[in-house]
């Protein structure tokens, strides 16, 4: 495993992109590569790192300035949103690494995990349906999380040169408010996007602590954590299907949601994997509203394959031109036009109505 190399961007620039806590985490994990879960040699590059690799001078330590990336108006918008949610975002990202320091210290000192857990007991009581129901109830009552998936993490979905501690993924979904997303690409939509990132980061950190109280080693990853590719992971967990715009489309909220995982070390619950949502891709072929309305023409006619032979998924494919999408996403602090115009985002019984146009009984 090579946890922080592989990018053309200079090391100082990588630090600004990843954050100090992530850099330290990855460097610590390099000490015990056989005890953690590293990325696959075919893994994709994290989105913003991909962009900076292509717009930055590899011979310089200078990153493009925020003004260069966002423009004056975009910078003012960013500052307004950051003043509301910036501290919560940064605090949540930091906590996701602070909470796992005891695990890293244990590995560093003992060469294995030695802290007592209830894993053996939970493996013996598999599939732990009562605990699964408790988890769902806690997530719903405390954080308004209405859906959780559980699946095994394919290493191809860990971003290139990154790593997680455990192999099994709980994926949590939180709704974005429709009225605010309908204002996209206006500031209210951007505000809602960043707000949910911040709240979901708090949620998974708290839920991971709840799991630890049950004797389960857990690693929460902030939704802006940049360690794994979440839409296909949630799709593998049966939570929805991939839309043409690249987002997960779910029966509950369409693409009007955000995702965040917690990784645990053993399969103590039943997988939620299913293929119930594959028809969505066929519907998107005939709809294409996201492509027609994209402000920067970032949605291609055909999906491009980036990774093949992913267990439980097959090929990782996307219609998104990241060089067009990501800068505008940053400039508008969330864009969300494709989410707004997606018919599935209407929620309610929309999913079932659209399904009937494709899946004939």
What can be said about this structure in brief?
With about 350 residues, this protein is an alpha+beta fold.
Q: Any key phrases for this structure?
A:
alpha+beta, 10 strands, single chain, 361 residues, four-stranded antiparallel beta sheet
Please characterize this protein's 3D structure.
- It is a single chain.
- The protein has 15 helices and ten strands.
- The chain is an alpha+beta fold and 361 residues long.
- The strands form four sheets. It has a four-stranded antiparallel sheet, with helices on both faces.
- A hairpin with a 5-residue loop joins strand 6 and strand 7.
- The N and C termini lie far apart (49 Å).
- The relative contact order is 0.15.
- The N terminus is likely disordered.
The DSSP helix count reads: 15
Q: Strand-and-helix sequence, N→C? A: HHEHHHHHEEEHHEHEEEHHEEHHH
- The strands making up the biggest β-sheet line up spatially as 2-4-8-5
**Low-pLDDT runs:** 1-16
C-alpha Rg (nearest Å): 20 Å
Report how far apart the termini are: 49 Å
Q: Calculate the mean pLDDT score and round it.
A: 89
Shape label: globular
Could you give the count of β-strands? Answer: 10
Strand content: 5-15%
Q: Characterize the main sheet.
A: 4 strands, antiparallel
Helical content stands at: 40-55%
Structural class: alpha+beta
């Amino acid at each position: 495993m090579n946890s922080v190399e592989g990018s053309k961007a200079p090391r100082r620039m990588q630090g600004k992109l990843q954050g100090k806590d992530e850099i330290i985490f990855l460097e610590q994990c390099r000490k015990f590569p056989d005890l953690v879960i590293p990325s696959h040699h075919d893994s994709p590059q994290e989105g913003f790192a991909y962009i900076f690799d292509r717009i930055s001078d590899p011979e310089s330590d200078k990153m493009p300035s925020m003004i260069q990336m966002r423009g004056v108006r975009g910078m003012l918008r960013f500052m307004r949103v950051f003043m509301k949610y910036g501290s919560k975002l940064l605090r949540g990202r930091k906590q996701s690494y602070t909470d796992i320091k005891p695990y890293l210290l244990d590995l560093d000192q003992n060469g294995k995990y030695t802290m007592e857990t209830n894993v053996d007991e939970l493996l013996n009581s598999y599939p732990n349906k009562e605990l699964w129901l408790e988890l769902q109830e806690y997530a719903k009552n405390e954080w308004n999380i209405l859906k959780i998936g559980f699946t095994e993490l394919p290493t191809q979905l860990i971003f290139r040169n990154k790593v997680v501690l455990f192999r099994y993924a709980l994926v949590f979904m939180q709704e974005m408010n429709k009225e605010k997303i309908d204002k996209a690409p206006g500031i209210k939509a951007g505000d809602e996007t960043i707000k949910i990132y911040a709240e979901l980061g708090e949620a998974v950190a708290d839920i991971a602590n709840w799991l630890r109280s049950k004797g389960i080693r857990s690693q929460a990853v902030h939704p802006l954590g940049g360690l794994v590719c979440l839409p296909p992971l949630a799709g593998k967990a049966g939570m929805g299907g991939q839309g043409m715009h690249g987002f997960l489309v779910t029966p509950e909220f369409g693409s009007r949601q955000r995702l965040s995982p917690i990784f645990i070390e053993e399969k103590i619950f039943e997988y939620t994997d299913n293929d119930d949502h594959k028809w969505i891709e066929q519907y998107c072929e005939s709809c294409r509203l996201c492509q027609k309305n994209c402000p920067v023409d970032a949605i291609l006619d055909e999906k491009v394959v980036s990774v093949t032979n992913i267990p439980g998924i097959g090929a990782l494919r996307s219609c998104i031109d990241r060089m067009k999408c990501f800068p505008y996403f940053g400039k508008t602090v969330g864009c969300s036009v494709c989410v707004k115009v997606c018919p599935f985002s209407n929620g309610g019984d929309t999913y079932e109505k659209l399904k009937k146009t494709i899946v004939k009984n």
